[in-house]
Protein 1
Amino acid sequence: MTTPDSDGPLAEQLLRFTRRVHRIQKRHIEQSGLGVTPAQSRLLRTLAHYGSPPRMADLAERLEVVPRAVTSLVDGLEASGKVRRVPDPTNRRVIRIELTDDGHKALRELRGARRSAAAEILAPLTEEQREVLGGLLDTLVDGAVPELGKRC
């Protein structure tokens, strides 16, 4: 005897929503005219969270990709002047990646593009619905499992 997959429709909704979010964000990034891909945008945002320029291996680990993928992203961003490779001050064999002034400017513009994409995505929701969604997303991101017998 088989039981119906009660989470199947919800899983499909989540996948469809994720694809929609990516599509809308990609469109807003393209409309910014920066010539940055969504993956490059993610690398720029990640770089901005480091206190000092990270190594390529650090970026690969943080982005959860293979180092070769980071090399390709950095190559493109370096060619457009948004990042630069700099030698490590304590180990000349190590190369670090830092944002340039153009990279910082691009980040500001990309933040605007992401905010406008979020506004488009959230437009159908009331303020109360947005608060509920925010709480639900926090729970999903944190991965907290409610105790048995307790309600969320």
Protein 2
Amino acid sequence: MHTNHTDPRALLRAAGLRVTAPRVAVLDAVAARPHSDADRVAATVREALGSVSTQAVYDVLNACVRAGILRRIEPAGSPARYETRIGDNHHHLVCRSCGTVVDVDCAVGSAPCLRPLNDHGFVVDEAEVVFWGLCPTCGSRERQPDAAD
């Protein structure tokens, strides 16, 4: 049972990182709004703590990614985004219009759920897939007839 999975203090301690207010606030911000970019995380942290530099938020995000507490995803043409869902090799859907990002479970099972035809001798342990399209809201806008038609 993963009772400490959502407790930022326990996650930080388990990763060997000091528990600080900015670290806890960053983990809380990412947990509350998965797939947020660093600017959104920084704004949320400032709402919780007051004055915190953007560089401090980037430092915390990078330390947590290195420690395996957060996952960084980088959809093409978008700033890096962060999430607390780690270790399950899930994938993402990205809306080409509004940039919404949502999780998609692995299509075939355990990691890596996709394997290259030729692995060139690599030991593959993860596959990262991004599905692109239009979210329901943007898709319905695209399908609405133009007033000139």
Protein 3
Amino acid sequence: MTISQIFNIANLFVLPFWTLMILLPNWKVTQRIMASYLPFVLLAGVYLYLFVNSITPENAQDFSNLELANVARLFADEKVAATGWVHYLVMDLFVGRWIYLEGQKTGIWTIHSLALCFFAGPLGLLSHILTNWISQKFFPKSQENEAVTVAEQQVSN
């Protein structure tokens, strides 16, 4: 399998998880799937494979001396770029899962934060942190009621 094929498959692999979290967050199947670490284990395995295969004697020195020029040179290599991209996919999905699970636990609205996390991971995280803060600061009773409702739904199912 080529690096390009692995890159394309990894990109497609994460889409169902994002779709479920954003569009069907309260569906039992979504909750069950997102409770699992399996997607991260699989993606981390792909990352490990790419990482090991991206290290060459030529670029090993750049890996050990992380200056901006060296990092730019590293990412000019397709194998290293694919490895870096899979790293982003794993970490963004993991952060998205955390946002999703926090929303399920607390009742805080997460769709906007998940969408941002899908397109720009750290912005989604920041959005969730701000949404959580605003919810706690200005709507503390509402958040408690929603969390109780979510907990009741989980117990009754």
